[in-house]
Known about the structure:
Elements: E1 2-6, H1 9-21, E2 27-31, E3 37-39, E4 42-44, H2 46-56, H3 73-80, H4 91-105, H5 110-120, E5 126-129, E6 136-141, E7 144-147, H6 148-154, E8 163-167, H7 178-184, E9 187-190, H8 195-204, H9 208-214, E10 219-222, E11 225-226, E12 229-230, H10 235-241, H11 248-255, E13 261-265, H12 272-276, E14 281-285, H13 292-308
Parallel strand pairs: 1-2, 1-9, 2-5, 9-10, 10-13, 13-14
Antiparallel strand pairs: 3-4, 6-7, 6-8, 11-12
Helix pairs in contact: 1-2, 1-13, 4-5, 7-9
Amino acid sequence: MIAVLTGGTGGAKFVQGLMQVVAPAELFCIVNTGDDLRWWGLHVSPDLDSITYALAGVLSRERGWGIEGDTFECLAAMERLGMPAWFRVGDRDLATHLLRTQLLEQGKTLTEATHGIASRFGVRARILPMSDDRVETRVSTPAGELAFEEYFVRERHQVEVTAVRFAGAERSRPAPGVLQAIAQAEAVLLAPSNPVTSIGPILAVPGIRDALHATAAPVLAVSPIVGAAAFSGPAAALMRLHGLPVSAAGVARAYADFLDVLLIDEADFGTAPAVEAQGVRAVWAPTRMTSPESKAALAQVALEVAQSAARVVANP
Length: 316
Ligand code: GDP
């Protein structure tokens, strides 16, 4: 079994690669829920949705989020009614949020609701929220504190960030199956997701970081940074805020306490010594995911390297 820790767009692309090279029953995705929000009274889980749609083969190719070919009639109608419309919800996507909200109101946990939705989409891989407890990524800016999607979508991550916190994390527990997946996996992979706001909330759930340290499985991450920049999104600014160099070495430093191998972009092979100075083995390959083939190739390399890697981190 392969466990992958993942977030939204970068994570979804990597999962689209993994699903081409790992049997569905063998794939366990542990997903960030720090971006979850209440929208028009509905429980929206943006990262769970992206991974579900990716595994169901319906993720929008053009947008990288939401459902391929979706329409936005409801959004337009809500806007005409004077409702907020900065968070774009497609009509078919809306059905997912309606169903999730209903399942949660019936007393189902987020794990159960996620499983119920994934099954109805025909997904056979396991999608696990990091926690059934509410953990909220909050972003401080000079104008006040924002929920993650207010920062990311409404403000287009163009505002200065002075701090990031994961409200509720201290009291949260890993969702059922998360620690077992990490403990029993043949390999644990970290998708090239934002280290601060996509992988960071998962690591903030008490017990998960320890499980990554304790597992006998090799742990491999794919770098979302090439050169001194992220492929997309605010990872660079957020890493700088956390005192991490914006480089593959900075990614290695963020995960050094449990990481065995960092898969960096081939263009970055010169940074391998700086990665290895963090006590993490560096390997390089093409990591830009632009086609089904490049996604599958990256997933295949990640798997092969992880499965042949010796555990470097000493087990406690
Ligand atoms: P978000 O919630 O949409 O920010 O989702 P993620 O955290 O999963 O994805 C964002 C991260 O994915 C960014 O830090 C990007 O640099 C990274 N990313 C996006 N596309 C690619 C790609 O093709 N290759 C790699 N290696 N990283 C990518």
